[in-house]
Amino acid sequence: MGEPAGIGGEIAIAAWKARTDAALTPFFMIDDAERLSALAHRLATGVSVRTIAEPAQAIDCFNDALPVLHRPLPTISQPGHPDPANARAVIGAIEEAVTLTLGKQAAAVVTNPIHKKVLYDGGFGFPGHTEFLSSLTGGGRVVMMLASSDLKVVPVTIHLALRSAIQKLSIDEIVATGLMTALALRKDFGITHPRLAVAGLNPHAGEGGAMGSEDQEIVAPAVEELRRAGIDVVGPLPADTMFHPRARARYDAALCMYHDQALIPLKTIDFDGGVNVTLGLPFVRTSPDHGTALDLAGRGQAHPNSLIAALKIARDMANRRG
After folding, report:
1. CA–CA distance, 1 with 30 (Å, rounded to integer)
2. Per-residue model confidence as pLDDT tens digits over 226-255
3. Mean of all residue pLDDT scores within the chain
4. Are 19 and 134 within one domain?
């Protein structure tokens, strides 16, 4: 579902409409079917919405209509105007998707963007999707990867203020993140011998300590520990020269020290095709790598490219996991 006042519904409708050209595997929504039907009519998409009673029914009707497990919203959703009264329904849709996937009734979870402030106002106690999904499966370590056809990045620290991210950075955090990333590249992306590049924290990777000691005292020892663990890894590298085409050809994923260091290059290179992938969960989860775009909601201007990419990556990961 995602935030019902955002663009999630219309990009799902657009993705279904492009299902043949995009070669999409059948998917279904957990959402308010009446909301989606009204949205499809409002945008004059010509898309039909079909209510299903269980996930298996999605396969039979997918060619003719967008399948929806109908979960009514407490209040009518207005595009561009989130209502905290619907927060519980948004959270419930995520929980149900996880339950269905763990129960083998679905192959993967693909989440539409949420509006965190609205969920916080509704009592949501997690920084974002990643941390919430971890809590639903016992609270183990998870890693956020942003993936496109040209670049995969993994931030070691995620939803933290920069000051807090630097304080949290440690050898153990970098090593654990690197090991999980290498495992996922093999298991979920089919890369037999994954190569990692680790970004330095400071400009010029610290310039030998002249611009901060963290790269010498934290990042470099972590890289060495990953190397001893059998990982093909280089670093710490100056982040400003890691993301041009020739540099990207030398690694399969880049480990970055904080949120924006990872997301800025990914979104610059492929804003419409980036996908958020959660590593370390006992099920496959992906998401479009963009927000709710409240300013675009209800206008029919939102592009479904990132959601289509998220659906395809989820399918491929699920197939590799068997």
Report:
1. 6
2. 999 999 999 999 999 999 999 999 999 999
3. 94
4. yes
In this structure, the answer to whether residues 51 and 130 fall within a common structural domain is yes
Helix runs in the chain, H state only: 8-17, 33-42, 57-61, 87-102, 116-121, 129-136, 162-168, 171-187, 214, 220-228, 245-248, 259-269, 305-321
Q: Is the dihedral of CA 195, 240, 255, 230 positive or negative?
A: positive
Confidence of residue 129 (pLDDT cuts 50, 70, 90): confident
Place of tokens 């924006």: 260
Please state the domain count of the chain: 2
Tracing tokens 């989440």 back to the chain, one arrives at: 111
Q: Which residues of 61-82 are buried (b: 16+ CB within 10 A; e: fewer)?
A: bbeebbbbbbbebeeebebbeb
The answer to whether residues 219 and 302 belong to one domain is no
pTM for the model stands at 0.91
Domain hosting residue 313, numbered range: 1-139+281-322
Which residues have a Cβ under 8 Å from the Cβ of 306 and sit 6 or more positions away? 11, 272, 273, 274, 275, 288, 289, 290
Whole-number pLDDT of residue 137: 87
In a domain, residue 276? The reply is no
318 and 293 in a single domain? The answer is: yes
- Look at residue 128 and tell me whether its pLDDT is greater than 80: no
